[in-house]
Amino acid sequence: MLKILIPSILLLPSTWLTPQKYLWTTTLSYSLLIASASLMWLATPSETGWSFLSCLMASDPISTPLLVLTCWLLPLMVLASQNHLMLEPINRQRTFISLLISLQIFLILAFSATELIMFYIMFEATLIPTLIIITRWGNQMERLNAGTYFLFYTLAGSLPLLIALLLLQNSTGTLSFFTIPYLPSTCSTPWAHKMWWTACLLAFLIKMPLYGAHLWLPKAHVEAPIAGSMILAAVLLKLGGYGMMRILIILDPLTKELSYPFIILALWGVIMTGSICLRQTDLKALIAYSSVSHMGLVAAGILIQTPWAFTGALILMIAHGLTSSALFCLANTNYERTHSRTMILARGLQTLLPLTAVWWFIATLANLALPPLPNLMGELMIITSLFNWSMWTLILTGLGTLITAGYSLYMFLMTQHGQLPHHLISLNPPHSREHLLLTLHLLPLLLLILKPELIWGWSA
Amino acid sequence: MAPPIYSALIISLGLGTTMTFASTHWYLAWMGIEINTLAIIPLMAQNHIPRAIEATTKYFFVQATASATLLFAGISNAFLTGQWDITYTPYTLTSTLITLALAMKIGLAPLHSWMPEVMQGLNLLTGLILSTWQKLAPLYLIYQIQPNNPNIFIALGLLSIIVGGWGGFNQVQLRKILAYSSIAHLGWMILILSFSPPLALLTIIIYILMTFSLFSSFMLTRTTHINSLSTTWAKIPILTVSTPLILLSLGGLPPLTGFMPKWMILQELAKQSLCPLATMAALSSLFSLYFYLRLSYAMTLTMPPNNPAGTLPWRLNPRHNTLPLALTTTSTICLLPMTPAIMSLMPF
């Protein structure tokens, strides 16, 4: 574990000491090196439990794919931010890259934490760099509001989580992931037990986000710069899912009844946010709401706690991370050329940027869960296990799938097909950097078709 | 102010607090507090502007009232119990009266109204002394009286956290914001005082570190208003990196040091099965985080190349002693991993 963590920490001094000419090359190549080295986590020798054990950090089949995704995303973020940061003074570029690196450090510590308080502190620690990235380097005035919403929605959920964890530690003596599955549940009065259950889950549900508490997400995603949107969509939402998976083990007897309203809310959110996507004019907002939609399905899958649902949730989290990040990169290529996120101002791009249209096509197909991509496998497993849990969810999930296909197609047709608007005579052709960025997003997604065991989680 | 007078006043400040710390008799404790009050009055009024005189007068009235009440409570205690010992307060009447008098001295809600207005009239250094040094002696006395039921402490504490957060919402003057932050942090301190005095000591020490670094940052650029914060990037750019981190640490965000007292206090409250109280205190501290965040926005996170939000003040006196700022800022940001070591150093 330290083999990856210490080089990531040492990326910070190398960012500040590298001469200006080589800054982006150096950070990109070193973070790619760390990303390739992080693939070693996927070779888990033990099928039943933890690997790469130490007393403070370990990885198991659930956290491994998320760890690799985190490490993979840093070079992609560096690649994506290079253009819009080129005009800034060198120290601000260094500060930005340092914020991305510190996010990676906190995320590695969060996903590999073996103790719940450590996970909590790292979960909260990711808020500060993300807040600074959104509010300092965002482009519109609304970014301050977005940062405030982001910070306060997450904190309002996570402070009760802290108290719930401290209560658990008081009654069980430890909060280590190795021992808490085997401890008796803390039963006090029924009301207190229900409150404790809610406090444990609320932070992660807000982070996922669950449909009723999702308002921070469109604001934060839209106002963030491209690296902020990428890390938010790809990894930070999955922190919520991962936390939920870890903590549901100890919430056991109550979850069977208490999870009902949240499952319904999540599934309803799939449909509602999908419908909102069909009416969006802002491209990044469309992708943000599609994130809410997919994560609603993940949340419902995690809450029913069956093996197939967990597997489906994990597969969908990884696949959605890569897809959503790719879509944000594509939206950013539009934004860098037209400086506008409005979809109708940049239509018919297949004529002007045909190579980018290929990437749009593949990313859209991934978003609408085309077989044999892992997006479909994840969604299918969740839908199947939800059907097993209750027949009636099929209506909601089936409708959700239909609407997802609808808005993905709408997004593709709106941006690529049709006539070019009159004011777009020519745009800069896509840079090799952008092609590389999208290849690095979509190639792992295509390769995962061939070996999905890597992201299956516990189901051996 | 002439150096002999200045040093005499500073030494008297130290003398007053030390006398209170060293005393077991009510008279001596009260005398130490009075010396503190009298020593800081000329310091507050040192630049003779009407606003400072107004602040000094308000401070004097409040502290005189509180001291008189304290003396009365001490004498009543001696009358009822026959002992002048500070630690022996078995009667609820006298212990409550003592607690309220001392709460008025340090500015806990609902006896906090004087604090923002007094702080506004002072220069930043005197404000720093007011919010750190002047709190020590009364807190020591509150700790000594060991009341039998913690209800009044919980009420004072929770109300202070809420008032400290809510009151600072609408403020643009930095000194008033610092006053409300002081009220909120002292609320956390008083909340835990009856359950675990070592944690109260931890809270006040961490609070003093964080406030010292924030006051020092403001003193370096002589900013007293949110608008003047926005030109910090042109004067001392490194402050635009450190001050938001100090502010977020004051707000109690992990992984900064300010999270440590909140974490330990919530842990202790969970051990005492006071979870609704813990939840209310934790969520109320989000109020103060909002205005700390707004200060960070003004200072760092909104910086267009041309900055119409701030007028350019004169840059006088370029020689700064930044060693205390450096030390306290580092401890404000980086001390959280040392929590076990720090907790083991809290003796009583």
Automatic annotation (TrEMBL), chain A:
<feature type="transmembrane region" description="Helical">
    <location>
        <begin position="62"/>
        <end position="81"/>
    </location>
</feature>
<keyword id="KW-0496">Mitochondrion</keyword>
<comment type="similarity">
    <text>Belongs to the complex I subunit 4 family.</text>
</comment>
<keyword id="KW-1133">Transmembrane helix</keyword>
<dbReference type="Pfam" id="PF01059">
    <property type="entry name" value="Oxidored_q5_N"/>
</dbReference>
<comment type="function">
    <text>Core subunit of the mitochondrial membrane respiratory chain NADH dehydrogenase (Complex I) which catalyzes electron transfer from NADH through the respiratory chain, using ubiquinone as an electron acceptor. Essential for the catalytic activity and assembly of complex I.</text>
</comment>
<dbReference type="InterPro" id="IPR010227">
    <property type="entry name" value="NADH_Q_OxRdtase_chainM/4"/>
</dbReference>
<dbReference type="InterPro" id="IPR001750">
    <property type="entry name" value="ND/Mrp_TM"/>
</dbReference>
<keyword id="KW-0813">Transport</keyword>
<protein>
    <recommendedName>
        <fullName>NADH-ubiquinone oxidoreductase chain 4</fullName>
        <ecNumber>7.1.1.2</ecNumber>
    </recommendedName>
</protein>
<dbReference type="GO" id="GO:0031966">
    <property type="term" value="C:mitochondrial membrane"/>
</dbReference>
<keyword id="KW-0679">Respiratory chain</keyword>
<dbReference type="InterPro" id="IPR003918">
    <property type="entry name" value="NADH_UbQ_OxRdtase"/>
</dbReference>
<dbReference type="GO" id="GO:0008137">
    <property type="term" value="F:NADH dehydrogenase (ubiquinone) activity"/>
</dbReference>
<feature type="transmembrane region" description="Helical">
    <location>
        <begin position="310"/>
        <end position="331"/>
    </location>
</feature>
<dbReference type="Pfam" id="PF00361">
    <property type="entry name" value="Proton_antipo_M"/>
</dbReference>
<feature type="transmembrane region" description="Helical">
    <location>
        <begin position="149"/>
        <end position="168"/>
    </location>
</feature>
<dbReference type="GO" id="GO:0042773">
    <property type="term" value="P:ATP synthesis coupled electron transport"/>
</dbReference>
<keyword id="KW-0812">Transmembrane</keyword>
<feature type="transmembrane region" description="Helical">
    <location>
        <begin position="285"/>
        <end position="304"/>
    </location>
</feature>
<feature type="transmembrane region" description="Helical">
    <location>
        <begin position="117"/>
        <end position="137"/>
    </location>
</feature>
<keyword id="KW-0830">Ubiquinone</keyword>
Automatic annotation (TrEMBL), chain B:
<feature type="domain" description="NADH:quinone oxidoreductase/Mrp antiporter transmembrane">
    <location>
        <begin position="23"/>
        <end position="287"/>
    </location>
</feature>
<keyword id="KW-0830">Ubiquinone</keyword>
<feature type="transmembrane region" description="Helical">
    <location>
        <begin position="325"/>
        <end position="346"/>
    </location>
</feature>
<feature type="transmembrane region" description="Helical">
    <location>
        <begin position="123"/>
        <end position="145"/>
    </location>
</feature>
<feature type="transmembrane region" description="Helical">
    <location>
        <begin position="201"/>
        <end position="221"/>
    </location>
</feature>
<protein>
    <recommendedName>
        <fullName>NADH-ubiquinone oxidoreductase chain 2</fullName>
        <ecNumber>7.1.1.2</ecNumber>
    </recommendedName>
</protein>
<keyword id="KW-0520">NAD</keyword>
<dbReference type="InterPro" id="IPR010933">
    <property type="entry name" value="NADH_DH_su2_C"/>
</dbReference>
<feature type="transmembrane region" description="Helical">
    <location>
        <begin position="273"/>
        <end position="293"/>
    </location>
</feature>
<comment type="function">
    <text>Core subunit of the mitochondrial membrane respiratory chain NADH dehydrogenase (Complex I) which catalyzes electron transfer from NADH through the respiratory chain, using ubiquinone as an electron acceptor. Essential for the catalytic activity and assembly of complex I.</text>
</comment>
<comment type="similarity">
    <text>Belongs to the complex I subunit 2 family.</text>
</comment>
<keyword id="KW-0472">Membrane</keyword>
<keyword id="KW-1133">Transmembrane helix</keyword>
<dbReference type="InterPro" id="IPR050175">
    <property type="entry name" value="Complex_I_Subunit_2"/>
</dbReference>
<keyword id="KW-0679">Respiratory chain</keyword>
<keyword id="KW-0812">Transmembrane</keyword>
<dbReference type="GO" id="GO:0005743">
    <property type="term" value="C:mitochondrial inner membrane"/>
</dbReference>
<feature type="transmembrane region" description="Helical">
    <location>
        <begin position="91"/>
        <end position="111"/>
    </location>
</feature>
<keyword id="KW-1278">Translocase</keyword>
<dbReference type="GO" id="GO:0008137">
    <property type="term" value="F:NADH dehydrogenase (ubiquinone) activity"/>
</dbReference>
<dbReference type="InterPro" id="IPR001750">
    <property type="entry name" value="ND/Mrp_TM"/>
</dbReference>
<feature type="domain" description="NADH dehydrogenase subunit 2 C-terminal">
    <location>
        <begin position="289"/>
        <end position="343"/>
    </location>
</feature>
